[in-house]
Write a structure and sequence with these properties.
With 209 residues, this protein is of the alpha+beta class. It contains five helices and six strands, in the order αααββββαββα. The radius of gyration is 24 Å and the shape is elongated.
């Protein structure tokens, strides 16, 4: 009974790993394409299905083949959906140079004497970065920001840092230069835990510096 349970657990783990690899290959194939990734997918299919084919275990072979195809299709579909949503929200947000948004502050970082505030916008899956000189807003507060917005830069030369792709992978649409910021709602009580952790992190960083 115990050995059978171990075999089942081993079979489930191996199947899960194969599913994860096929899922990742599906995402990479949709994002980059190329014969290298396609060859990797073919090699994965051969490595998974060939041993079952030699054992004449055709039912297992069909099951694993269907699982690999489903995982690859799921990865491709998830990537296509994410890209489509990003492009749709990007066109909607970047339709005008001067915009006004309201969102929740989920991340803040100081760079070159300016603050980069990341806002999660209601109704959007993606985010926007606000560049401002004032970073004294607590995390999880709701900010109303008005100012010009621009898209991220695409690489002009081969091998150059792809700023647009980098922020696209981080689900960030564009960067705003804040002309006015109004804090609509600030967290209080136990809801200040993220801001308290952020301050503790900054204190630890100061100690190490």
């Amino acid at each position: 009974m115990i050995s059978r349970r171990k075999i089942n657990i081993h079979w489930i783990k191996r199947l899960s790993c194969q599913f994860a690899f096929a899922l990742i290959l599906g995402i990479l194939l949709a994002e980059h394409g190329g014969w290298q990734i396609l060859l990797s997918a073919v090699m994965l299919a051969i490595a998974v299905l060939f041993p079952q084919f030699l054992k004449a275990n055709y039912r297992e072979c069909v099951l694993r083949g269907a699982l690999l195809i489903a995982a690859g299709a799921l990865g491709t579909g998830c990537y296509v959906r994410q890209v489509g949503r990003w492009e749709k929200e990007s066109q909607k947000l970047l339709c005008g140079q001067q915009i006004s948004v309201c969102g929740r502050l989920i991340c803040k970082e100081q760079k070159n004497e300016r603050w980069q505030l990341t806002l999660a916008l209601p109704g959007y899956e993606n985010r926007v970065i606000v560049s401002t000189k004032d970073g004294g807003y607590p995390l999880d507060c709701v900010l109303s920001v008005k100012g010009p917005v621009r898209d991220f830069n695409s690489p002009r030369n081969e091998g150059q840092f792809n700023e647009k792709q980098y922020y696209k992978n981080r689900k960030t649409i564009g960067r705003m230069s804040a002309e006015s910021i109004v804090c609509i709602r600030a967290p209080s009580g136990i809801y200040e835990w993220r801001e308290n952790l952020y301050r503790l992190r900054m204190q630890l960083c100061a100690v190490y510096e």
